[in-house]
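Saturday, quiet lab. Running sequence design on the structure tokens for the scaffold JK sent over.
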């Protein structure tokens, strides 16, 4: 019988810059103050001790929930904008008014991303009550479009 090997643990925490857990930006959105002059940072770190969950989810005993698959491109764009924002804040070229404006706008953008991701998940039945999620995920089940009943997908007749 082969010997059981253990998973290699990280020496330092790994930052999830693009595939971050949605609990992390929601927490930062709640506590972020653009007036402090500190760059907006999602801060989703995966430790060596709990490499499957991020620090926040591990501490609060939650499950990490990444952005919906259909929103991953938007999450990558948000991460790129936050990286740009961090470079601007650390730079000596821009004055305080410009930096405060950028901090405020990136905070607003992060809040808008959270709202869009939540709306996307609800619209496609990925979030909500268990009954709503269960009934929305089946393909080919009759559904209503603008007051007209439509049934079937992929070549089936749909009457509008």
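Result came back. Writing it out in full:
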């Amino acid at each position: 019988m082969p010997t059981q090997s253990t998973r290699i643990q990280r020496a330092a925490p790994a930052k999830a810059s693009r595939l971050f857990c949605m609990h992390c930006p929601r927490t930062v959105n709640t506590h972020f103050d653009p007036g402090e002059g500190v760059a907006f940072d999602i801060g989703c770190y995966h430790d060596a001790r709990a490499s499957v969950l991020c620090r926040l989810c591990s501490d609060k005993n939650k499950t990490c929930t990444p952005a919906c698959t259909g929103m991953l491109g938007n999450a990558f764009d948000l991460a790129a904008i936050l990286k740009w924002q961090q470079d601007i804040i650390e730079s000596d070229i821009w004055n305080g008014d410009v930096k405060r404006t950028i901090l405020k706008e990136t905070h607003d953008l992060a809040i808008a991303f959270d709202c869009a991701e939540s709306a996307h998940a609800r619209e496609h039945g990925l979030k909500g009550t268990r009954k709503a999620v269960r009934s929305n995920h089946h393909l080919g089940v009759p559904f209503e479009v603008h007051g007209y009943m439509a049934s079937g997908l992929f070549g089936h007749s749909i009457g509008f």
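Notes for JK: Strands lie at 14-15, 45-46, 143-145, 148-150. The chain is about 45% helix and 5% strand. Ask whether to fix the surface positions before the next round.
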